[in-house]
């Protein structure tokens, strides 16, 4: 858990575009379910910032049944928010 927190802090400091972050997380060894969730969460935050509705991309079954996907989605949603605060 501590490793994940440290990596997330480092990741936040690195910045960059969504695909670069996805690649960085993959290189750090995050699993496919986490990466899928991260990508969906990041997309959801970006679309919400632009349209204010209908931007969510989320797999409800995976959110309930796959903790790694759910954690990745939440992390992606929170991280992409820090890069798009001027929309709010």
Automatic annotation (TrEMBL):
Protein name: Lipoprotein
Domain of life assignment: Bacteria
């Amino acid at each position: 858990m501590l490793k994940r927190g440290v990596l997330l802090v480092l990741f936040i400091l690195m910045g960059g575009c969504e695909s670069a972050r996805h690649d960085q997380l993959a290189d750090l060894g995050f699993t496919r379910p986490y990466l899928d969730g991260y990508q969906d969460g990041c997309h959801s935050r970006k679309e919400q910032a632009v349209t204010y509705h209908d931007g969510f991309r989320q797999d409800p079954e995976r959110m309930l049944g796959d903790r790694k996907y759910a954690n990745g989605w939440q992390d992606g949603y929170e991280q992409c928010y820090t890069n798009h605060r001027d929309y709010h």
